[in-house]
Amino acid sequence: MKKAIITGITGQDGAYLSQLLLEKGYEVFGTYRRSSSMNFWRIEELGIQDNPNLHLLEYDLNDQTSNIRLIDKVQPDEIYNLAAQSFVGVSFDQPLSTAQTTGIGALHLLEAIRIINPKIKFYQASTSEMFGKVQHVPQTEDTPFYPRSPYGFSKLFAHWATINYRESYDIFGVSGILFNHESPLRGREFVTRKITDAVAKISLKKQSILELGNLDAQRDWGYAKEYVEGMYKMLQYEHAETFVLATNKTFTVRTFVELSFKQIGIDLIWKGTGVDEKGYNKATNELLVAINPNYFRPAEVELLIGDAKKANELLDWVPQTTLDELCSIMVTADLKRNENGFSF
Ligand code: NDP
Ligand code: GDR
């Protein structure tokens, strides 16, 4: 039975990846941080919390003795490093702790692998945020980087650390440069889930207005469940490489808002410009969407669109879910949750 450590099992991707690896017959060791209230709602929603092959281990990525003890105890075949302070907005307010966890955290693991067993395969959760102010469209494994946030430059550190340990010590270190991927398990601080949760609440008369920041930002959004399969495939490939996972389509935040409202039968009409722009129900003229400048970022990533040709060809990884289907999956889940009083 193969053994995998997943750091960040309480997050969106950690939950889906655990489910996938359990289905594939792995023994999964998922790590979580100690906090005053435990936060296992995602693995509970997937119904895997009582699986006998899932072990939950308390752990802090920033404590190197914790990393060494974890790896020494489990002796895993594979480590998926998903733990990070992953919210770009917060990284501007907490740059040092973000750099510590999101950047140096990966180096802690690579060093622990080097010391304990360099045969352990390592997956680093890299990101399209490393492209930042994009130098080339669409972005591939060879596009130059230009990060636009402390989150982005911390991830870039971890990306290059992974490549350097691959080249220096022959560690099977894979960097997966994943574009945005969403699901009903997304945190509500991220724009997609914030929108679908608000649409559900507006539909149920529990909220009146959705406040957002930059509606013009363009993102390449895929479905998280499909992206964790790509992570798994990268570690099964014959060489350690860098791969982009993306849909090769880009849409504005505004389009995501429109598609989400359509799921509950509302067509939006936009009036005004800039921070005065507002979205109304076309049929009733009711105000539904407004801009709140507090949600703007000091530096923005305006346009992301990825080209996953390498993963398509070498890993046979092809995303299937369209943006409309993704909105439908997320709005449906949030309607059900809000009807049942679920608050995550
Ligand atoms: P989430 O924010 O949902 O999950 C992040 C996880 O990291 C949580 O389990 C969190 O624990 C954990 N964590 C944070 N700090 C620490 C720490 N100091 N020690 C141990 N664990 C910690 O992220 P996603 O699941 O969406 O993303 C997974 C990874 O992929 C992240 O590294 C993210 O940056 C990266 N990524 C995500 C993309 C996306 O679109 N989702 C795209 C590209 C990359 P807790 O629950 O306690 O906060
Ligand atoms: P992102 O995701 O920064 O791309 O990082 P997020 O959903 O936070 O923002 C996407 C875009 O939407 C704009 N936006 C808003 N964003 C939020 N969160 N809240 C708002 O109210 C709002 N209004 C507009 C943002 O300015 C931005 O342009 C995600 C994270 O999962 C990272 O960890 C990951 O690496 C990248 O995706 C790929």
Automatic annotation (TrEMBL):
Cofactor(s) required for function per UniProt: NADP(+)
Record keywords, A-Z: Lyase, NADP
NAD(P)-binding domain: residues covered: 5-330
Pfam family, one: GDP_Man_Dehyd
SUPFAM superfamilies for the chain: NAD(P)-binding Rossmann-fold domains
Record's catalysed reaction(s): GDP-alpha-D-mannose = GDP-4-dehydro-alpha-D-rhamnose + H2O
Annotated InterPro entries: GDP_Man_deHydtase (IPR006368), NAD(P)-bd_dom (IPR016040), NAD(P)-bd_dom_sf (IPR036291)
Enzyme class: lyase
Matching CDD domains: GDP_MD_SDR_e (cd05260)
Entry EC number(s): 4.2.1.47
Its biological purpose: Catalyzes the conversion of GDP-D-mannose to GDP-4-dehydro-6-deoxy-D-mannose.
Family: Belongs to the NAD(P)-dependent epimerase/dehydratase family. GDP-mannose 4,6-dehydratase subfamily.
Name of the protein described by the UniProt record: GDP-mannose 4,6-dehydratase
Taxonomic path: Bacteria, Pseudomonadati, Bacteroidota, Flavobacteriia, Flavobacteriales
